[in-house]
């Protein structure tokens, strides 16, 4: 039993018929859902499908996709580990939802039904399983941590048993947000039989979670600080963790090629997967972080370990700001000097560092070299957002974008991007909307490149763009998409 994953548990073996002795509806328990009788004719549980997944949702879960329908194993016996035998019977999501009720059937000896149960840290959940009276099913119900879904063999966090005609009850306080594995099977792995299952949140039901941990990937400039004292995604991690989400913030070089940064992120993502037991992570990336993530997925083979990549103003088709810095776009000496001074002043970079950081996001390199070499992985959901900022005197743009005005720090890059020539168009002061749009494009944000992460003048609730609320919505959308 893993104490750091479940802080409290209740295991009950019922010795009198259900539901009265095991807390069913007839016993007058106010928090229990309506009983669902076991249906011997129903060979599979009827799990309600998620009807609100946003566009760009990832394909259905690949957990146990190679399992057979019956799950029989000629070598199984009472000492066989049920984690070797379970068949994926669908999802039970208890985050932000009411009680889940379903009927199922253990179809044969050695069969183990498995449900991918999503719950959030701080929730207390209860599961009741009524065993069919007419069968010989001595039912066992067990809740395992995330590692069990991904093929590991972690011990049960909590378990309960119920004889034919009785109810197995388990209750647990969830200590880690995300995916768990709920198993239902005959105690001896011998007898078939039908069951009715009910699961619901008892307390802490306002806590939120995604199926997979959220990993925030920073752009150039580094995770730790900007200007020496500001967190990159300002206040985002603390807000999401306060709501219940599992959020991680790996660190890569402030200035380097995405091939190098992707390797640095990969080592830390591997550690996150080992620590949590999760099958995948959800990547939420700003600016160059999205390019790093695309390298990670397509070039390094992490498509089987990423549920979604959410990109915020990632220059997927490059930016003419980089063209100007690398010489591909002729500009005046004053503009070039201003660009170099801007990044040197903000991040303390040398001229060489600045040119190197921007070289890989030049438009020609991105469109002619990078994109053909890094195709999307069909196993991953790709979502994108773009920023839209406005000149102070552009009142029409400001009215359409919640009053957003570009930060003065970006005035030189704003001037390069503003217009209707090649590489120009609506933009956030560094990346155009056209360049940022990739995969399922989810719209524009009334923000410049710094507002998108809560930096400089007008980040947070006091300004036109509430970046914390935006990332909170991204997390909610990932949950709604089953990711």
N-to-C SSE string, H for helix and E for strand: EEEEEEEEEEEHEHEHEHHHHEHHHEH
Amino- and carboxy-terminal Cα gap:
27 Å
Average pLDDT reading: 82
Number of strands: 16
Shape summary: elongated
**Structural class given helices, strands, pairing?**
alpha/beta
Please state roughly what percent of the residues sit in beta strands, choosing from under 5%, 5-15%, 15-25%, 25-35%, 35-45% or over 45%. 15-25%
Question: How is the largest sheet built, in terms of strand order?
Answer: 2-4-9-6-7-1-8-5-10-3
- Helix count from the secondary structure assignment: 11
Q: What summary fits the major beta sheet?
A: 10 strands, mixed
Percentage of helical residues?
10-25%
Question: How big is the Rg?
Answer: 26 Å
What are the low-pLDDT stretches, counting only 5+ consecutive residues below 50? 1-61, 65-73, 225-229
Account of the protein in words:
By secondary structure, this protein is an alpha/beta fold. Helix content is 23%, strand content 23%. The chain has helices at 236-243, 258-276, 288-299, 320-326, 333-347, 351-359, 363-373, 395-400, 411-417, 433-436, 467-480; strands spanning 6-14, 86-93, 100-106, 112-119, 124-131, 139-144, 158-162, 167-174, 178-186, 193-203, 214-217, 247-248, 281-286, 306-312, 381-387, 440-445. The protein has a ten-stranded mixed β-sheet, with no helix packed on it. A six-stranded parallel β-sheet has the order 12-11-13-14-15-16, sandwiched between helices. Helix 3 (288-299) links the parallel strand 13 (281-286) and strand 14 (306-312). The longest helix has 19 residues, at 258-276. The two termini are 27 Å apart.
């Amino acid at each position: 039993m893993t104490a750091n994953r479940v802080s409290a548990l209740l295991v009950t073996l019922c010795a009198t018929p259900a539901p009265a002795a095991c807390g069913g509806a007839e016993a007058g328990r106010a928090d229990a859902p309506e009983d669902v009788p076991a249906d011997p004719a129903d060979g599979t549980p009827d799990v309600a499908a998620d009807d609100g997944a946003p566009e760009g949702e990832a394909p259905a879960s690949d957990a146990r996709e190679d399992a057979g329908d019956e799950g029989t194993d000629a070598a199984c016996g009472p000492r066989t580990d049920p984690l070797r035998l379970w068949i994926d019977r669908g999802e039970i999501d208890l985050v932000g939802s009411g009680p889940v009720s379903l009927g199922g059937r253990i179809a044969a000896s050695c069969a183990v039904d498995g449900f991918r149960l999503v719950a959030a840290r701080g929730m207390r959940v209860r599961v009741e399983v009524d065993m069919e009276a007419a069968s010989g099913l001595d039912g066992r119900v067990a809740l395992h941590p995330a590692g069990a879904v991904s093929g590991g063999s972690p011990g049960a966090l909590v378990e309960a048993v119920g004889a034919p005609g009785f109810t197995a009850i388990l209750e647990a306080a969830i200590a880690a947000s995300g995916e768990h594995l709920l198993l239902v099977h005959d105690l001896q792995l011998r007898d078939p039989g039908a069951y009715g299952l009910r699961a619901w949140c008892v307390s802490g039901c306002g806590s939120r979670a995604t199926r997979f941990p959220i990993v925030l990937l920073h752009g150039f400039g580094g995770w730790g600080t900007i200007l020496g004292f500001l967190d990159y995604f300002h206040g985002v991690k603390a807000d999401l963790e306060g709501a219940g989400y599992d959020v991680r913030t790996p660190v890569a070089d402030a200035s380097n090629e995405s091939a190098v940064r992707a390797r640095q992120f990969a080592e830390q993502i591997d550690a996150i997967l080992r620590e949590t037991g999760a099958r995948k992570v959800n990547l939420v990336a700003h600016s160059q972080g999205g390019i790093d993530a695309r390298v990670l997925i397509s070039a390094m083979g992490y498509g089987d370990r990423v549920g979604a990549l959410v990109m915020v103003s990632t220059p997927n088709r490059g930016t003419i700001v980089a063209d100007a810095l690398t010489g591909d776009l002729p500009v005046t000496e004053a503009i070039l000097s201003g660009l170099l001074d801007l990044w040197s002043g903000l991040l303390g970079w040398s001229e060489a560092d600045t040119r190197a950081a921007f070289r890989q996001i030049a438009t020609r390199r991105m469109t002619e070299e990078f994109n053909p070499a890094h195709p999307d992985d069909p196993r991953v959901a790709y979502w994108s957002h773009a920023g839209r900022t406005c000149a102070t005197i552009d009142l029409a743009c400001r009215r359409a974008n919640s009053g957003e005005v570009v930060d003065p720090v970006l005035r030189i890059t704003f001037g390069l991007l503003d217009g209707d020539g090649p590489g120009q168009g609506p933009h956030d002061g560094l990346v155009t909307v056209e360049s940022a749009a990739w995969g399922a494009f989810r719209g524009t944000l009334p923000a410049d490149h710094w507002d998108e992460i809560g930096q400089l003048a007008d980040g947070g609730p006091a300004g036109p763009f509430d970046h914390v609320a935006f990332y909170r919505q991204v997390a909610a959308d990932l949950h709604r998409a089953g990711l």
